[in-house]
UniProtKB/TrEMBL annotation:
Name the record gives this protein: Small ribosomal subunit protein uS9
Gene source species: Dictyobacter arantiisoli
Signal peptide feature range: none
Family statement drawn from the similarity comment of this UniProt entry: Belongs to the universal ribosomal protein uS9 family.
Keyword terms, alphabetized: Ribonucleoprotein, Ribosomal protein
Record region (Disordered): 113-137
Pfam families the UniProt entry points to: Ribosomal_S9 (PF00380)
Lineage: Bacteria, Bacillati, Chloroflexota, Ktedonobacteria, Ktedonobacterales
GO molecular function: RNA binding; structural constituent of ribosome
Domain of life of the source: Bacteria
GO terms (BP aspect): translation
Length: 137
């Protein structure tokens, strides 16, 4: 195993759209996920898909999620972008924990930063690509 980063946790930063997540992964934990000082269930509310997104890197490696504790600070974006940013950060922290995880996480696509962003609005248009309705007369 690699040596610990800044004491007793492993750090990973993840980004998605305009959301930025700073993830701390504690290897000898109790399986809890804390996001902005709230539990993950209360942070994401009834959206179980976001919880599944956050835990996806642990499931991809068949790791016992009860062996790790995650604390996350996430800012910017909406809930979907924040969930994707946390997933990216968790994957990066797992690679710092054990570099052998890199191949499996890369194959699953969790280490690649999703480059899609909201397209800017253009002048003369209503939105990025929607033009005003054409009237012949």
């Amino acid at each position: 195993m690699a040596d610990t980063i800044k004491g007793d946790y492993y750090y990973g930063m993840g980004r998605r759209k305009t959301a930025v997540a700073r993830v701390r992964l504690y290897p000898n934990g109790d399986g809890s996920i804390t996001i902005n000082d709230k539990s993950a269930q209360s942070f994401f509310g009834p959206r179980d898909t976001h919880l599944a997104t956050v835990a996806a890197p642990l499931r991809a490696l068949d790791l016992n999620s009860d062996a790790y504790t995650l604390t996350v600070r996430v800012v910017g974006g909406g809930t979907s972008g924040q969930a994707g940013a946390i997933r990216h950060g968790v994957a990066r922290a797992l690679v710092r924990l054990n570099p052998d995880f890199k191949a499996a996480l890369r194959k699953a696509g969790y280490l690649t930063r999703d480059p899609r962003m909201k397209e800017r609005k253009k002048p003369g248009l209503k939105r990025a690509r929607k033009a005003p309705q054409y009237t012949k007369r």
